[in-house]
Amino acid sequence: MNDVKRFNRKFIAIMVMIFLVVGSAVFGMIAANLWIADSNVQYLVYVASIIFCLVAFGLLQGRMERIMQLGFLARIRAHAGDPLPMDHTLDMDKMDERLKCLGYQFHRRDPDHSLYFRVTKDNIRKTFPKYILEVIVLLNPGVKGFYIDSVDTEIGEIQQAHLKLSKRIDRMLITQIKDVDDLDEKTKDSIKEIIFVRTRYTLISTINVGLYRPRNMAVMLYSATYRPSLYYSRHLEEIRRIL
After folding, report:
1. What are the two backbone dihedrals, phi and then psi, of residue 217, each rounded to the nearest 5 degrees?
2. Largest Cα–Cα distance in the chain?
3. Model pTM score
4. What is the β-pairing status of strands 131-139 and 195-198?
5. Phi and psi for 11 in degrees, rounded to 5?
6. Angle 3-35/39-78 helices, nearest 10 degrees?
7. How many angstroms separate the CA atoms of 7 and 63, rounded?
8. DSSP state of 102
9. Interior CA angle at 19 toward 2 and 53, to 5°?
10. Binned average pLDDT, 10 residues per bin, the chain of 243 residues
11. Which helix (H) or strand (E) holds 12?
12. DSSP bridge pairs for 195
């Protein structure tokens, strides 16, 4: 059984459990109404049924969200796209100018990376839209992997600074770009360590891009056919513009 089918079955199992919880609570309330004459006892059964549902939903919600996130990643891997051609990234010395032309602001540079960001009003979400934070991290080739702690700290600083300006950010699209010397399994596994988390209150998409100059191509784990959300589509379109 492939990963997609496995996560589909887990999701169905959670939905069945939710159905059983609701069914049990409804049956309890109906039974109390039919077979219990004391209204006080009926009231206690109603309250207990509601509390049972709330507790069960609380326990199942986190598990269901986790299964959904893993399911998104499994579908992306199952429909992985081909490497993309490099254009603007052929000369990394011009990336600063390119990113600023696309509306990004320079935030910080250290021996490991340079970080640029752009904050825009969310034009995808129609109900109570907030702001989208788009981050571009240019990693130095000597950095191991694609994730460094200082990036998380800097993103937190940007969020807090904009919150003071009454701009609440609840969508983050993060692109991490680095030159890679070869495409061995270790490098490929590092590139594949992407993130796509979507809940009721937030969305985070992180895509790692390895620039392989011997063939002038950008290698990343993405899907050209499966799109878990419109934000994911926007993220991919922006990466194409940058590359």
Report:
1. -135, 150
2. 81
3. 0.82
4. unpaired
5. -65, -45
6. 170
7. 12
8. T
9. 120
10. 62 70 76 76 79 76 73 83 90 89 94 95 86 95 90 94 91 95 90 87 92 93 88 94 92
11. helix 3-35
12. 206
